[in-house]
Amino acid sequence: MASVQVLGVGTKQPAGSVELDPVIFEAPVRPHLFHAEVRRQLAARRAGTHSTKNRSGVSGGGVKPWRQKGTGRARQGSIRSPQWAGGGVVFGPVPRDYGHKLSKKTRRAALRGALSLRAKEGAVTVAQGLALDAYKTKRVVEMLAGLGLAERSVLIVIGEADLHLETSARNLPRVSVLRVAGLNVYDVLRHERMLIDRGALAALAARLGKAEDA
Fold first, then answer.
1. What is the mean pLDDT of the chain?
2. Same domain assignment for residues 87 and 105
3. Same domain, yes or no, for 8 and 64?
């Protein structure tokens, strides 16, 4: 079981140490699970509202544009046919849902693997005192600088809702704040570092710490 120092925000001094759950932070790293889960997440985000009209949806064309024979031109049945300008589209996109499912066990294994990868890289920082008492982006910048995470791509993980922190970090392009309930593989992998609130570790263990389905 790995032990990491807990840093105090604003004090620049260690505030003790904490053991990281090996089920979560020492799990097998399986890149193919990352691919499957990220693909599922991004597919679920697609709106799927693209649409075209086929020949039944285009206006006009109730009669033949000219008679069948005798004109010297190719026979035509309707100006709604695909070969006409303004006609229907053949096999065009229609509204659809791109979402697909992965088993809960697969998704948990992928998230554990992503967290274990960041821990193996030494990219996980645990701190206490991350909560803010006001909406102030400058406070978040100062907090990250004090923890040695300035100018880095950082994912801040908190246990419960903290509107001051979540809103204050919204203006920072390389910083994201997620609650444990919303922690996901895509956001873990797209940030270089993770900053986890000490109080969030218990919630993380409650969500992912069951060894029976690891």
1. 93
2. no
3. no
Q: Are residues 157 and 174 in the same domain?
A: yes
Given CA atoms 174, 179, 180, 185 in this order, what sign does their dihedral have?
negative
Q: Same domain for 14 and 73?
A: no
Show the domain range for 187. Answer: 3-44+99-213
- Domains in the chain, number: 2
Cα separation, 168 vs 140, whole angstroms: 7
For 26-70, the pLDDT digits (tens) are 999 999 999 999 999 999 999 999 999 999 999 988 899 999 999
pTM for the structure as a whole: 0.85
Task: Give every strand in the sheet of 3-8, ordered side by side.
Answer: 14-19, 3-8, 124-128, 193-197, 154-158, 175-179
| Host H or E run for residue 197 | strand 193-197
Q: Which of 92, 120, 151 is the endpoint of a domain?
A: 92
Distance (Å, whole) CA 16 – CA 195: 16
Residue 143 φ then ψ, to 5°: -65, -45
